[in-house]
Amino acid sequence: MRISGGRVQPAAGARRVVAVTAIAGYGSETLTAVRPSFDEVYAAHYADLTVQLYAYFGDRQEAQDVVQEAFYRALVRWNSVAGYDDPVAWIRRVAWNLAVSRWRKARTSLSFLRKQRRIEPQAEGPDPDRVALVAALAALPAAHRRALVLHYLGDLPVAEIARREGVAAGTVKSWLHRGRAALATQLDLTDSTGGA
After folding, report:
1. Chain centroid to CA 176: how far?
2. Membrane-spanning regions, if any (predicted)?
3. Per-residue pLDDT of the chain (196 residues; tens, 9 = 90+)
4. Would you give the DSSP letter of residue 24?
5. pTM for the complete prediction?
6. Measured between alpha carbons, how far apart are the two ends of the chain, in Å?
7. Nearest C-alpha neighbor of 165 from the set 185, 191, 147
8. Do 77 and 52 meet the contact criterion of CB atoms below 8 Å apart?
């Protein structure tokens, strides 16, 4: 950063500085807030969000599509989104909302197709362990699944998940505990019926 004409200016290629005049006329000083650029946020968080949604969907391409759509929506509104306390939280929420919406549509479509005709597999499927894990995750309540993915794949602490979900930290701990227990039960049942 450099100071020019009494204002703080970013170095070339650095984050933008937004000047805000002091509130209610309590002085002529200028408050400054550093806002991240869209490129910085995208570079720092695209991969993490993709991994989280990949665990949710079990489909890398679908996860990438959802994350790209969320970042596109952020880019269109970047002047507003960049001013939020945590622009990444807004992008994550949009991505999760899109993911849930797509998951519901896919579930509805699959249910309809099952009623119409029997679906034959067209290609060799993924590893059975991966399929079992994705199926076990899909069977969990959405809150438990989100908490597990954000905590174990997104490396978010319990307090951060609680803040993002708008619940107490104890609730998130309960979701994690119940989610782990349900996964253990489901995966153990899978192992006892023919797994290694």
Report:
1. 17
2. none
3. 444 444 444 444 444 444 444 444 444 454 555 788 999 999 999 999 999 888 887 888 989 999 999 999 999 999 999 999 899 999 999 999 998 888 788 777 777 777 776 656 666 667 777 788 888 888 899 899 999 988 988 888 999 999 988 999 999 999 999 999 998 888 875 445 444 4
4. G
5. 0.51
6. 58
7. 147
8. no
